[in-house]
Write a structure and sequence with these properties.
Structural class: alpha/beta
Order of helices and strands: EHEHEHEHHEHEHHE
CATH architecture: 3-Layer(aba) Sandwich
Number of domains: 1
Radius of gyration: 17 Å
Number of helices: 8
Strand order of the largest sheet: 3-2-1-4-5-6-7
Distance between the termini: 38 Å
CATH superfamily: NAD(P)-binding Rossmann-like Domain
Helix content: 40-55%
CATH topology: Rossmann fold
Number of strands: 7
Amino acid sequence: MIDLKGKVAVVFGLANKRSIAWAICQKLSEAGATLAICYQSERLQRDAETLAAELPSAKTYRCDVSSDEEIDAVFAQIAADFPVIYTVVHAVAFAPADAIKNDFLLTKRDDFRIAMDVSVYSLIAVARAAAPLMTEGGSILTLTYFGSDKVFPNYNVMGVAKAGLESSVRYLAASLGPKNIRVNAISAGPIKTLAARGIGDFSKILNAVEERSPLHRNVEAIEVGKTALFLSSDLASGITGEVTFVDCGYNITGL
């Protein structure tokens, strides 16, 4: 059994109970970790606080990761509450609706910038702010998707952003390795989250995975949470810079 008692985990990206971030919070908490849960805006505050109340010793913080000032401020708050942190989970991604639903060729410069800033650069900014508090080493995790490598309908600029995110994981792993901080990504299969609502014909992707994946089903958020728990623990002490697929094996299939 994985024991994270006495370890503090900071989780960015909690939106509601369907969030992958929530499944990760649940599994980390079950293992004994203390949670610092960050939500993006006042609109999401109530759900974040309601969910955090279900976990022992969890605290909530507001942080918009598109702002360096807010990232610095939230880690100052976290440092005041928890001088040492062990795990950081970056479950954040965003692109303007037009950049997802329109043909990729029509992607606007500003929409591309926003997608890369929020979905990719924010991992770098969060890792930089978190590292000084990770004095005992630890694990930084982010969430990606197979659309980084293969073309999926109605995913468009987000696929390019996820490719950048995965490359950033490798470079951050090299940067932070000397501090004994591991950086990894989990590539989850399609899950009905708030973010997934923005992807047109999402049900077709779900159906394709159920039909073609070796397990002939779609993955559940809690299974991603289990993988995050493993990667956060000493059981994964030799793993860094990797993308771990949790997609019922869909990524290995051809036809």
